[in-house]
Amino acid sequence: MKLTYLSQGADHLDHVAVSNSSALIRTDDFARIEGFQTHCAELQKDLKFLSEALICLHFSRPAHPLATVLINDIRAIILHKFTLRAARQNPLLATWLLNAVALLQDHCVVTIERRFAIELVEHFGFDTVDAPSYRTEENKYLFFKLQGKRYAPQIDMVYERNFYNFTRDQVYSLTHLLFYVSDYGTTRFSCSSALSCALEHLTYDAYLNCDVDLMLELMLVYRSSDRSEKETVQLFESLASKLIRKSPNLHHALTVMDSEYYPKFYHQSLLAMMYRHSNIDGNGESNRSLQVTYRALREAHTFNISLRSGNYVKAARNFTRLDNVDAAHLKFCRGNLDRYLALQRYEFRDLTRDVRENVLSG
Prior knowledge:
Elements: H1 11-24, H2 27-32, H3 36-59, H4 67-78, H5 83-89, H6 91-104, H7 111-124, H8 133-146, H9 158-161, H10 168-182, H11 193-208, H12 212-223, H13 230-246, H14 248-255, H15 262-277, H16 290-309, H17 312-319, H18 327-361
Helix pairs in contact: 1-15, 3-6, 3-15, 5-6, 6-7, 6-8, 8-10, 10-12, 11-12, 11-13, 11-16, 12-13, 12-15, 14-15, 16-17, 16-18, 17-18
């Protein structure tokens, strides 16, 4: 029987993820540090992992028994004698402390850390130095959470219309914005038909690029949208599991205790654990088989990629070959084609105007 990696109740995989993550937290090393500068350097080096481990622990409910040990290890780092002083001087460390306190407040963080985190935000603001814009949104999300409120950023329409031109970093910006809207895939959120179609395209595109990390993030937010379809969710789970099986090192990191590959693939392991614990299924059923769902997804993706290529003749031809897509997806593709052709007409008109003006002025 093939391992799916993403099915609920995979207790062994949860145990592997939490145990291997615990091994990466160097609590004893931090306890032995005497110099302030050394502490700052070591803490900053571990920030990314500590932040992502916290997010996974917070949203993976019910919590794994080992999670308490992991949380106490992280709390020991927060309560280190140098941590508050370091955060006061370094905005990056202040951001991490905000992250830690906001996510641990349901467990055991004491009042002084919570109050200090709020004061840090008031002192530094939300902006993180040399970081993508969605990090500012993350800080707002965490600050609201710290105060017991809900923060839901607005999703710009550009994500619905220009998705086929996105770079990998731009796709990450979208997934993170949707993380804050959906509480990291644990709460159903309202999603436009166009955005849902864009998420399907980007998820399949990540699969074709063998990008498991990005694919799992997209799957987590797509499944929590109110327009996700059960057949499409099942198809993505099957495709993601296929990718993991094709990568022996990634498979080893997700399934083996004390895996030597875990430090490299910890993010994929934590995402898979969050996905397993997100108690949200696909919202609707299309009554299509997985084979038909796959063909429709592939046809729509081929059409959208032809828009990116700039060949409008090829794009129009691919549009006529959308035989398996439903009415909603067909409307979405038609809208993309119309906007694309309108853009080409505008560009051609501007080009001929510039040529005419240059001739007349010459």
